[in-house]
Design a protein that fits this description.
With 63 residues, the chain is of the alpha/beta class. 44% of the residues lie in helices and 25% in strands. It is elongated and about 35 Å long. The N and C termini lie far apart (31 Å).
Length: 63
């Protein structure tokens, strides 16, 4: 079954915490939900800061 793709608005306290929970608990979330949840895109003010945290696997935009 395909994953559920989500986008985050910001990587501050809430957005960054959400990203950490989704990535660190991915296996348990997938087991409970029946599908993986994948962060596909993030909108942030500082792209370089976001790249340090996320790497190149996620689309990052300032729009």
């Amino acid at each position: 079954m395909s994953s559920i793709k989500v986008g985050l608005l910001g990587l501050g306290v809430v957005g960054g915490g959400t990203w950490k929970v989704l990535t660190h608990n991915a296996d348990e979330i997938a087991r409970r939900a029946g599908r993986r949840i994948e962060v596909a895109a993030v909108a942030v003010r500082d792209v370089e800061k976001a790249r340090e945290l996320l790497g190149d696997s996620v689309a990052i935009t300032t729009d």
